[in-house]
Description:
The chain is α+β, with helices and mostly antiparallel strands. The protein is built from 10 helices and 21 strands.
Amino acid sequence: xxxxxxxxxxxxxxxxxxxxxxxxxxxxxxxxxxxxxxxxxxxxxxxxxxxxxxxxxxxxxxxxxxxxxxxxxxxxxxxxxxxxxxxxxxxxxxxxxxxxxxxxxxxxxxxxxxxxxxxxxxxxxxxxxxxxxxxxxxxxxxxxxxxxxxxxxxxxxxxxxxxxxxxxxxxxxxxxxxxxxxxxxxxxxxxxxxxxxxxxxxxxxxxxxxxxxxxxxxxxxxxxxxxxxxxxxxxxxxxxxxxxxxxxxxxxxxxxxxxxxxxxxxxxxxxxxxxxxxxxxxxxxxxxxxxxxxxxxxxxxxxxxxxxxxxxxxxxxxxxxxxxxxxxxxxxxxxxxxxxxxxxxxxxxxxxxxxxxxxxxxxxxxxxxxxxxxx
Length: 375
C-alpha cells in the first residue's frame, strides 16, 4: 500500500544523468574518485598524469550528484558528490545523476539505496554472475520504480537522518581518539617512561615463566550446556555455556592456534577451549597489569607455523617483559588503563546504539510508516 501523498516514480523521472567528458592532456595531472561498497562513500585516489590514463574514458565530477559504481552497485557502491570533488574526474564506470528540480532530493535517494530494499533493486538492475560480471545496466537502472514522498518531505527525512549521521561520525571520532590515547599511554606506562608519583626503583626484564603459570585449555564437547552458568571461551570471545568451570581465578586467555595476538582478560569462572592457553599470576604479579603488558607486544612474531599462526607454551614462557619493581605500581598502571578501557567501552556502546536507532528510523521514515511534519 502506497502511503498517502507518496507516488511511484522511475529513476529517469527523478534523476538526470550528467556526463561531461574530459579531454585528457598527457602532461597534466588528474585525480580520480573511487566509491567504496556498502555505502561507505567516496575516496580520492592519488593524482596521476594524463599519459597514465591513456585512452580511459573519464568525466568531470559534478557536485551534489548521486554517483554509482556500476561494477559494484549490487554491493551498494553508491555515494553523493560534494564540493570536495570539484576538479576531480570519474571513470565511465561511475555515472552521475543530478536531481530533477522539485522532484527529488539526492541525499534521500542515497539513503534509500543504502537500505535492504535499495540493495535489492540495485541487484535487480545488475544482471549477470557474481563479482565483476554482475554489472549495473544503466537502462535497467533508469527504469527502476521507487515509491517516494514529495520532494519537500524527502528533504526533511534526509535532514533528520543526516543529524544521526553527524552524531555517529562524532562518536566514531571520539572513539578513535580514545583508542589512540590508550595506545600512547600504554607505550609510556608499560615501559617505565612515565611513572606515577611515589614510585621508584629499577624496572627489570623477566621471562613469562617467572610471572605466570600457563595452562592448556580443553575441548568443550562433553561439557556444553545451553542453560549453563559459565562461559566457554575461545580467542574470539564467548562460544557457548557450561555447568562446569575450568578456572575460577582472574586469568588472561591467549590463543594457541589461529588468533594468537588478541589476549582476553577474564574475571569470572570460565572454560577455555583447546586452542587456547589461560595464564594465572604468580607471586607478586598483578594479572590485569600482565594482561596489558602482554597485549602490547607482537605475539604474531612468535608464531611457529607458516600457515595457521600457532604458539607453544615453551615459546610463551621464554618471552621477556619489562616489569615494575612492586605490585603496587603494577596495580596503579592497571587501574589507570582500566579507566581508559571503560571509557572506550562506553563509546562503543553509544556508537552501536546510535547505529541501531538510525537503522530503525530509516526503516520507518523511508517506508512511510512514520511521517514527518513539513513547515
